[in-house]
Amino acid sequence: PQGSEEAKAFVNAFLKRSMPKMKDEAIQDILTRKAVVLEHYSKKKTKQKGKKTKGFTAKQRREMHLFEIEPNQQRYTIFLPLHELWKQYIRDLCHGLKPDAQPHMVQGKLLKADLHGAIVTVTKSKCPSYVGITGIILQEFKHVFKIITKEDKLKVVPKVNNVFSLEIDGFISYIYGSKFQLRASERSAKKFKLKGTIDL
Q1: What is known about what this protein does (predicted)?
Q2: Does residue 164 lie in a domain region?
Q3: Which end of the chain is more exposed for a tag (fewer CB within 10 A), N or C?
Q4: 144 domain residue, yes or no
């Protein structure tokens, strides 16, 4: 057991460490009170700036051919399950596609929906060679659709000057490509006019 002097010295040293900003006279003044509230000074943590991982630029992605579909994978049957998933996605989006569903509501949903996996047909075009092309949309870019046909041919069809049709559960919707020149991610926030000037 410590003697009274040793205990007093220990307490004084302890209080001095606990309250480094206070003078000795102030500490002695506090000791005359019944309760002593010790102060706590936490060390400020220096935040380390984490390095952000930089992704590839658009040019680098093109050079690496990241978005190109390999020739051995350009087969229509491979992407039929994707089409089935797309149909289920549209049914959920349109709350079942019931017979009493309003066509303009379905059309509005389809304009903002993701079309990867949809089967589309070019119904009108200023270029006659595009008319009749039917297939599954594999990739959608701002200005073109990449479509795989039943003949296992990958077609790049521009949106401008083309009218596309897609059918699901009896609902046929028409897409005027000239008014549809947006990326898939941008269309979800776009407000489309269901009525207006229609041109190729």
Answers
A1: Component of ribonuclease P, a ribonucleoprotein complex that generates mature tRNA molecules by cleaving their 5'-ends.
A2: yes
A3: N
A4: yes
- Where are the extended beta strands (E) located within 32-181? 119-125, 134-140, 144-149, 154-158, 162-168, 171-176
152 CB-near residues (< 8 Å, 6+ apart): 74, 75, 76
Cα 74 to Cα 138: distance, rounded to the nearest angstrom: 10
Domain range for 106: 71-189
Q: How many domains does the chain have?
A: 1
Helices (H), 24-79: 24-31, 58-63
Identify the CATH number of the domain in which residue 154 sits: 2.30.30.210
Q: How far apart are CA 67 and CA 188, in angstroms?
A: 22
CB count in 10 Å sphere of residue 169: 14
Q: How many CB atoms lie under 10 A from the CB of residue 154?
A: 18
| Alpha-carbon dihedral angle through residues 105, 106, 108, 113, given to the nearest 10 degrees | 140
The DSSP secondary-structure symbol of 129 reads G
- Domain assignment present for 44: no
Q: Average pLDDT of 62-74?
A: 81
Residue 127 pLDDT? 92
- Helix and strand numbers (H, E) in the chain are 6, 6
Residue 150 domain flag: yes
User: How far is it, in rounded angstroms, from Cα 160 to Cα 131?
Assistant: 13
